[in-house]
Amino acid sequence: MMKSKVVLHIRNPFLLDASTYISTAVMALLGISGLHNLLLQITALVLCLIFVLLYRFLFRTGAYERNPAIYFGLQAVVLMLLVMLPSTANDAFNFLFYILTVHATVVFATRVAALWTSLYFVIATATVLLNRGIEGLYAVFFYLAAFVICAIFGHTVQQTELTSEHNQRLVDELRETQQKLQELAVVEERNRLARELHDSVKQQVFAISMQLSAARTTLTESDKAFPPVMEAERLAQQAGAELTTLINALRPPGLESRTLPDGIQEYVKEWSRQNKIDTEVHVDSTISLAPQVEQALFRVLQEGLSNVARHSQADWTEVTLRNNNSHIELLIEDNGIGYDAEQIIRGVGLDSMRERIEAVNGSLEVSSRSPQGTCVAVRVRRS
């Protein structure tokens, strides 16, 4: 049995459907009209139905791809039985070999398709020569031309489909590249803003804080200016801390060569130190995901903790990364003031988090009730 490898998976079979069903119906009528025995006519009709059913339930569904040789071999046997019937219109049954040739040349590589086409040609010509003798030579040459034309047609259809698939892949790659370029442009702009904030505003705030600290040391608590200077110094330090949080949110460090569990633990530890918020971390160290999924989860963690630091007024946060059946869950919980439903709908920085997770086919849910804190729950499928 010939080893056959399918090179094309038919996605738009309308042309093959039309040619197969119409040709089989017409040729069955013509071939059966040449049979003068009712039993033979019923036999021919049954064989034609088998030919169509094999096409419909094996070829069209793609089931034949597990062993193409069995499908094309069965169809050849069915047609051999048909052409062996003593019909005066046997050429009609032989015509179905042309259809089978088109099927083979559409889905097989050139060499394999040529072998199947040659087999069908030998069967058809052998039948003609057995029935007509030397007078069938004219039909043999006609069959040869017809088989060549059908093979060329099938191969052309195959190349057209393969070219279409290739073009579609190029379009998909172009879209993906365009999206990556847009993301890179956004990252570059965020980095530029972060640099400007760090090099200008943050340095000025730090200088103000230092000046206020120096002024405070020259005063005593009994001086009227002492409380306003203390408050101004506190506000300057708070502004500096918020600027640091904002800069980190604009230009967050990536995972680099770390695993997601390690990256989360290190980042949360540093975030807790900078923001003076107690944090509990529960991470399953065995979790491993695709790089793009890990990056998305890490970015969401950063943005979620940034929201906690800026908006929640929390003094405690819990971060959890765990397996949950077929999903991985990332939970960010705090004991802050929470948000009302309208604030959650309008954003509070959640839009970008949701977009990141949806880009990797995940989901993000936020539950919050003022003043009971907030929980951000992210779920992604395990790879």
Structural description of this entry:
The protein is α+β, with helices and mostly antiparallel strands and 383 residues long. It has two domains: 14-170, no CATH class; 254-383, Heat Shock Protein 90 (2-Layer Sandwich), CATH 3.30.565.10. The chain has eleven helices and five strands, in the order ααααααααβαββααββ. It has a five-stranded mixed beta sheet with strand order 1-2-3-5-4, covered by helices on one side. α1 runs antiparallel to α4, α3 runs parallel beside α5 and α4 packs antiparallel against α5. The protein is rod-shaped.
- Can you give the helix content as a percent range? 55-70%
Tell me the structural class. Answer: alpha+beta
- Reading the helices and strands in chain order gives HHHHHHHHEHEEHHEE
Give the low-confidence spans: none
Termini gap: 39 Å
Quantity of strands, as a count = 5
